[in-house]
């Protein structure tokens, strides 16, 4: 709720101030395309870390009667 106080490291901050700071600290996302058509989204956070995510235009919305349930099955196999 608006006006609720939060405590971080002994400093009292308003929730709106915290939310504003979070939004201002989000690095710009750059999207580039490789020669093979793969799109790559990258952000420079200024720290020595790397996070990789993979999104594929696949899933039940792309299935038909012949391959119905395939995406669900592969999801379970990937996270076993």
TrEMBL record:
Gene3D superfamilies reported for this sequence: Metalloenzyme, LuxS/M16 peptidase-like
Keywords recorded for this protein, A-Z: Hydrolase, Metal-binding, Metalloprotease, Protease, Zinc
GO biological process: protein processing involved in protein targeting to mitochondrion
Cofactor requirement: Zn(2+)
Stored Pfam families: Peptidase_M16
Source organism superkingdom: Eukaryota
Any GO CC annotation of this UniProt entry: mitochondrion
Protein name, entry field: Peptidase (Mitochondrial-processing) beta
Organism: Neovison vison (American mink)
Gene: F8WEA6
